[in-house]
Known about the structure:
- With 462 residues, this protein is α/β, with parallel strands linked by helices.
- It is built from 17 helices and 14 strands.
- Helix 1 packs antiparallel against helix 2 and helix 6 packs antiparallel against helix 7.
- It starts with 10 loop residues before the first helix and ends in a 5-residue tail after the last helix.
Amino acid sequence: MVEAEPIAGSPTACWRAWSAPILACMTADRIAALEQDAALDPENPERYRALAAAHRAAGEEASAMAADLAAVALEARAPLALCNIATACFQAGRRAQAKRWYGLALRLDPALVAAHRNLAAILEAEGSLAEARAHRDEAYRRQSVFVEQAPAERQRVLLLAASGYGNVPIETFFPAATVTRVTWFVDYAKPGEGDRLPPFDLVFNAAGDPDMMGPLLPDVAGFLARLGKPLLNPPAAVARTRRHLLPDLLSDIADVAVPPVLRLPRDALGDPRHGARVGFPLILRPAGAHGGQGVSLIETAERLADAALGEAETFYLTAYRDYRSPDRYFRKYRVIFIDREPYPYHLAISQHWLVHYFSADMLHPSWKRAEEARFLEAPARALGGKAMAALAEIGRRLDLDFCGIDFALDGAGNVLVFEANATMLVHLKDAPDTFAYKHRHVPKIFAAFEAMLARRLAGQAR
């Protein structure tokens, strides 16, 4: 029999080492019990004080502080304070806590628009689409226009937006410090609301995902028709970028490959004829989904009929193309079009077919970043002349002021299109020491966007 080795150190150290897992389990059980008490009696401040003490004992100071502040807010019957606690948790990535505090704020004030908006975003990210829609309805039926005043205003921009996911990420292009942003959620526009909007210099259609924006309401369409000011990314042009429309829009361009795509209602997925039209294997994707949410690779008609669908009502079926490079890695390039001109943005390299930059682990090994740097510094050399010519024509064909394309190069060097639309995220949050090359090249995209705005404000078409 092998004897266990004694724990080195003092008796106190031995006790701590032995007891720590047990105490941690007891603390977790205590917190879980207090969470249940609070759920049964959600407006009792003492429940949250007890919960705060338990979190503090577990070393979870941020959670303890939130519970303490919630207790104070409940005593004062201050729903806005609870909403602020929730927003702080939301911004820190603690979505479960944010969800609780927003829900509690709405118990005190069901008309709190900010709580409904942010709770809808959390629920949508979780896949609870119907519940998210209910909260968005509550928010935007009460208020559909929001003004963010810039402290050092240089421009005033009207942003047309759709509720839910699918809006263009505009923070880096219309910075809050210098651009006053008037955001109008046009799918909830009220009659005559366009004529009552605050003043603005130009209009940018931020509703970049046509699956999230239905036909324009007559009042909004009429407003845009008589606008008399620059309109960037017109809704009609954005509508042409739905995934199932891209083959007709782009596939006749030389050296471009666009796999077949079908857009189907939920109840049509069980019909084997649709899968056969696209061909197996195929990619199943909920319409309006982003970041890979709900996306799966389906190999047979039987698996398509049995696929887990969540709450989505409309889906895309896209023919899968194996785009691995000879080294067996998958490469997904992103190019951004500013006023129809292409600018390289990033390259994600992964061992999995569903490639996203956030999951590709571009830190390891280092040759991935070296290859991405070469793409940003000399895209024509990285992609080849015929691919660059194809991208230039794609930009002209999309005919949008701002949009992007995610693509690969197939074995013949053609541009294999994954998606091309206006919802592409562009930022410069990567560490400047590790991604120094991005900090040299990505600002060119921002500069091109600013120059385009200046031209539009000066009355120049392009």
